[in-house]
TrEMBL record:
GO terms for biological process: lipid biosynthetic process. Keywords: Membrane, Transmembrane, Transmembrane helix. Pfam families: FA_hydroxylase (PF04116). It comes from Ruegeria atlantica. One of its GO terms (cellular component) is membrane. This is Fatty acid hydroxylase superfamily protein. The lineage of its organism: Bacteria, Pseudomonadati, Pseudomonadota, Alphaproteobacteria, Rhodobacterales. GO terms for molecular function: iron ion binding; oxidoreductase activity. It comes from the Bacteria. Residues 181-308 form the Fatty acid hydroxylase domain.
Length: 329
């Protein structure tokens, strides 16, 4: 925790990371190659949302993915399997993290951003309970829309309606596209999310997600149907950019599982006495507390470019509150 006399924002949090919230140094000028290397090795060479999602996608592809040829026509067998490939990891990761952090309280309050526990007995939430509300919107709404979109993509791939690659046919593109998928996801997310915050659209599309001012693992993709219809259009890039089914699996895993970690409410997951994995993301935690800031991710600094970047300081909170007021008057 930081000294609250230096940054009054610290007093508003249980755990407040030191210094400004970091952004991808790739976009800094003049170039900082050492910082960039550190950023990407931090993301790809330890347990993070990226590496976990890639591992889940590879496992799904190797052991459970139906043969592409079987998807040429819509048939219940493979369609049910694709639904399970969405549901099972979501339940395991969100359910597991929720159990460990919030029920078992496996690491107590260690690196937990917000002091408060998740909300119970509150009429804002479906079933008057934040966790049950979030589970319903995730497993009921988000998983349904994500699955239907994936059915369309796999069916189009299986029939050769869209450009599809193989590992042996295009190994370099295979890897390059895999690395760029998170960046595409961040770019798509920023613009969709900004649209959802338009005062005329917000209450129809995005208010369900923002019931969660204090967030937990199940809040990640706890979205209204209309928001999910927009949010998961990110997958349709695979109808245009030459892809392999593993790209779609990784994209889906990243789009669905990484928000579970980023909304977990804890910056790090502890194993024994050491920080074993990166989890929460203060950048997005600030978005849930103050709304009209940090619309994107730290991967592409759109918020910095467009003046909505909250760096975690009290001055940024004052500025965000003024901006919100002006948006709604
Ligand atoms: Zn939002
Ligand atoms: Zn969120």
């Amino acid at each position: 925790m930081t000294d609250t006399t230096q940054n009054p924002e610290s007093a508003r949090w249980h755990y407040h990371p030191d210094g400004p919230v970091s952004l991808n140094p790739l976009f800094k000028w003049p170039p900082r190659p050492a910082e960039v290397l550190k950023w990407y090795s931090g993301a790809w060479l330890q347990i993070t949302a990226l590496t976990l999602c890639l591992a889940l996608a590879v496992t799904a592809y190797a052991f459970f993915f139906p043969p592409l040829e079987s998807m040429q026509s819509f048939a219940p067998g493979w369609m049910f399997r694709i639904w399970l490939l969405n549901m099972v990891p979501q339940i395991l990761v969100a359910g597991g993290l929720h159990w460990w952090l919030y029920m078992r309280k496996g690491q107590g309050m260690y690196k937990k951003f917000d002091r408060r526990d998740l909300t119970r007995n509150n009429g804002t939430f479906t079933f008057r309970n934040q966790v049950l509300d979030n589970i319903w919107w995730t497993l009921g709404s988000a998983m349904t829309v994500a699955t239907v979109y994936q059915w369309i993509i796999y069916w189009a791939m299986a029939n050769g309606y869209v450009p599809t690659i193989t590992w042996s046919g295009a190994p370099v593109w295979f890897v390059v596209w895999m690395v760029f998928i998170p960046m595409w996801s961040g770019l798509h997310f920023y613009w969709v999310h900004r649209l959802e915050h338009h005062p005329k659209l917000y209450k129809y599309l995005h208010a369900v997600h923002h019931r969660n001012v204090n967030i937990g693992p199940w809040s990640g993709i706890s979205n209204h149907w209309y928001e999910n219809l927009l949010y998961f259009t990110t997958y349709f890039i695979h109808l245009i950019v030459p892809s392999h089914p593993l790209h779609v699996l990784f994209h889906a895993s990243f789009q669905q599982i990484s928000p579970v970690l980023s909304h977990s409410g804890f910056e790090k997951l502890k194993a024994g006495d050491t920080d074993a994995a990166r989890a929460g993301d203060f950048f997005h935690q600030l978005h849930h507390r103050y709304f009209e800031c940090n619309y994107g991710t730290s991967e592409i600094p759109f918020d910095k470019w467009f003046g909505t970047y909250h760096d975690g300081s009290a001055e940024a909170t004052t500025r965000t509150r003024a901006y919100k007021k002006q948006m709604y008057t």
